[in-house]
Amino acid sequence: MIHHPDFYNWNRVKIRYCDGASFTGDMQAINPVTKLHFRGARIWRAVIEDLLAKGMRRAKNAILSGCSAGGLTSILHCDSFRALLSMGTKVKCLSDAGYFINVKDVSGAQHIEQYFNQIVELHGSAKNLPASCTSIMKPHLCFFPQYTAPQIHTPLFILNAAYDSWQIKNILAPVAADPHGYWSDCKLDINNCSPTQLRIMQEFRLEFLAAIKRLGRSPSGGMFINSCYAHCQSEMQETWLRYDSPMLNKTKIAKAIGDWFYDQSPFHMIDCPFPCDSTCHDRVFGPLDQPGNESQGRQPWLLLVMLLAMNLMVLP
Q1: pLDDT for position 288
Q2: Which parts of the chain are beta strand (E)?
Q3: Of 66, 104, 255, 81, the residue nearest 152 (C-alpha)
Q4: Measured between alpha carbons, how far is 314 from 93 in angstroms, rounded to an integer?
């Protein structure tokens, strides 16, 4: 976000993601085997309190943003972050590649739901998930944005690829659901996918769109849903704002988000199905990214908070 006419002079704070549960964990006990502390929520509070003391409380504008697990953080903590700043501060949230959906994998199993349930139980996350969701459904379901985001009151922008490469690799076709590696080449490069695999991925896209449409077309919210095979599009200049960056309706990601934040124009765009979008920067994974070598569930992404004099931007 450095090279952007709307945000170039903002103060930025990047919070390294380190807890494994989008800063929701809060277990008093220490794991006796691994000696790990699952206390992401305490880390979050300590970091934010430190930033407030250093001047963030005087911010005029603030964006809580993040990519992947950081994007999920931006959704789960959006309203609580808004509540920490004065009513005179313009506060909005941006989730990049954090809209993980609850769908069955290619074997018909509820792999991702089981995985999220394990995370919530291991980290003791239930008490730190939005009460508007946990009051009406099981806590682990509230780790999915499709059940939580519709109740968020702070303006929220969703940036996501409909064929999100992490979700295709880890939600739709995880190793556990594909023990013979039928999906291996397809997950490395979408151009390697067979007609049958592409049909399944098109069905995944429709399920993703059904989940995202739960948000409606709120005038304060926004969305940029393209049909790329990608994951995280706001952290690299080539996809954020460059001469050949992805576009929807002739608008690049940085322009869409800048206009949305400053209330210059709303942006709610959903792309046509793959392979219609020639502006995509589709991800091609190398040999070291073979499904058997990837770290299932590990999400080493960051949270960024940005402030500008004082405008703030926080990124997980």
Answers
A1: 67
A2: 11-15, 61-67, 90-96, 156-161, 222-226, 247-248, 251-252, 268-270, 303-308, 311-315
A3: 81
A4: 9
- Residue 60 scores a pLDDT above 70: yes
Average of per-residue pLDDT across 259-274: 96
Q: How far apart are the first and last CA of the chain?
A: 14
Residue 309 has pLDDT above 80, yes or no: no
Query: Taking 90 as the threshold, does the pLDDT of residue 95 lie above it?
Result: yes
Joined together, the tokens standing for residue 182 give: 């039928």
Q: How far is CA 74 from CA 12, 22, 211, 247, in A?
A: 15, 9, 18, 23
Asked if residue 123 lies in contact with residue 25, where contact means CB atoms within 8 angstroms, the answer is: yes
CA-CA-CA-CA dihedral for 126, 127, 129, 132, to nearest 10: 110
CB of 144 closer than 8 Å to CB of 116 = yes
Cα gap 110→112, rounded to integer Å = 6
Spatial contact of 51 and 305, defined as CB atoms under 8 Å apart: yes
What is the set of active-site residues? Answer: 68, 164, 231
